[in-house]
Protein: NAD-dependent succinate-semialdehyde dehydrogenase
Organism: Propioniciclava flava
Amino acid sequence: MNPTQTSATDPQGSLAARTVALLGRVPDGLLIDGVWRPAEGDRTFTVSDPATGLPLVRIADASPRDALDALASADRAFPAWARVAPRERAELLRAAFEELQRRRDEFALLMTLEMGKPLQESFGEVAYGGEFLRWFSEEAVRIQGRYGITPEGTGRVVVSQHPVGPCYLITPWNFPLAMATRKIAPALAAGCTVVVKPASLTPLTTSLFAQVLLDVGVPAGVVNVVPSTKSGPVSAAILDDPRVRKLSFTGSTPVGRDLLARAAPGVLRTSMELGGNAPFLVFADADLDAAVAGALTAKFRNIGQACTAANRFFVHASLVEEFTARVTEAVAAFETGAGTQPGVTIGPLIDSRAVAKSEELVADAVARGATVRTGGHAVEGPGSFFEATVLADVPADAALMREEIFGPVLAITTFESEDEAVRLANDTEYGLVSYVYTRDLARAQRMIERLATGMMGLNVGVVSNAAAPFGGWKESGLGREGGPEGIREYLQTKYTLTPDPFA
Ligand code: NAD
């Protein structure tokens, strides 16, 4: 909604007043050397609310030269930050975790305003995103090496871990807080400094979070933020500069592939969290109640705009009709509207291009023989809404079986045998996550071994957890975020050989 309007459910205009006050607190500059400053030439761009299409605020639009200033700041701050005691780094991250929880109302509202997800999901993201700060505050003090004797006994092997250096972090728009904390927290815990480029569609949450880091005492230059509409030139400037030592990117596979090529000349460490095309398998022995509940979460969380969103539902032929009827009944009852309004489960998609994409994918599937059980259409504006949709009898050649849907469209097809299910599930260049519903333990174990994905939800519809290694196989990415693995992405190993001290 327009921040200056009131609504039927908010007759006193308290939401409008809170919105105006909140937007007034979001830093509107670039964060470089611990100071918010304007972009070169005072350039700015507009951030809009996808629920209304109306502008929220204008913020600084970094140029390639600004990006190099940010990198210079990260480079200057690096030696001192790398020497800060791990316990001190840990306590700063822990303080940021506490502060984020204290200000959860503000962060949740800001995410809903700039990205569109329903407010209760934004609260969920504050909790999830915050956990990376808590987890990596605990990991910062557990960076360990080893000491050993060579097999010949003539030397001693010392293995130590060191921060990789200034890092460039690029985040997508779909989880504005969690995608930032999932990178910034392990980088800082490891002793690295960072330049963050948030998605230009949703930069506000990152800026407000960076201010929290300054407020709790993270030193100037350790975290730099460069919102920009010129992602390509800004990224090229940084990646071509020898001062940057690591690139961590979350976004689409095509952009990730380009960035890997950009990172090659400098032989940068890279972490890539890319696209997905998750299969959701419901076997004949599944607990159908659990499978239906899991399907709704795995598909419609974040309005279907998650890399982990279930993209293809393969349901055993014996259950497919009942499964389809039950998900259709639930989906038909979903309420679509602005994420700030109570009771809404389906907020707007990020922009009108996303709506057009859902429309095209549904039309293509229907033209090839799929049937629409509920939904199927864009909702007239203002705002970029698409109805929550269930498609049945989706044929294998439908475009949405190969492409990420990234919208609220649940596409169901069927299978007869376990071998067929596995073949269909693995028939994609992506390998981020799979979901399996079965009560047969041996089958579940076979799925762990046979499904070619970096993550698997076994009788659960969401896998994300700060303590677990999030990441994909095949063209879904490189490296892991979260878990003990997450901090290793920001550390490099040194092996030192010493002589036999007794020789
Ligand atoms: P995107 O690739 O368009 O953009 C991601 C980020 O890269 C944004 O900050 C964008 O501004 C920037 N960018 C775009 N073009 C660039 C270029 N040429 N050079 C440098 N930076 C560039 O992706 P998106 O639409 O923001 O996000 C959706 C995609 O992200 C989906 O494919 C989704 O699966 C993926 N994703 C993956 C994960 C994961 O953990 N695997 C998590 C969330 C989203």
The radius of gyration is 24 Å. Confidence is low (pLDDT under 50) at residues 1-6. The chain has two domains: 14-274+480-488, 278-466. Residues 14-274+480-488 form a domain with the Aldehyde Dehydrogenase; Chain A, domain 1 fold (CATH 3.40.605.10).
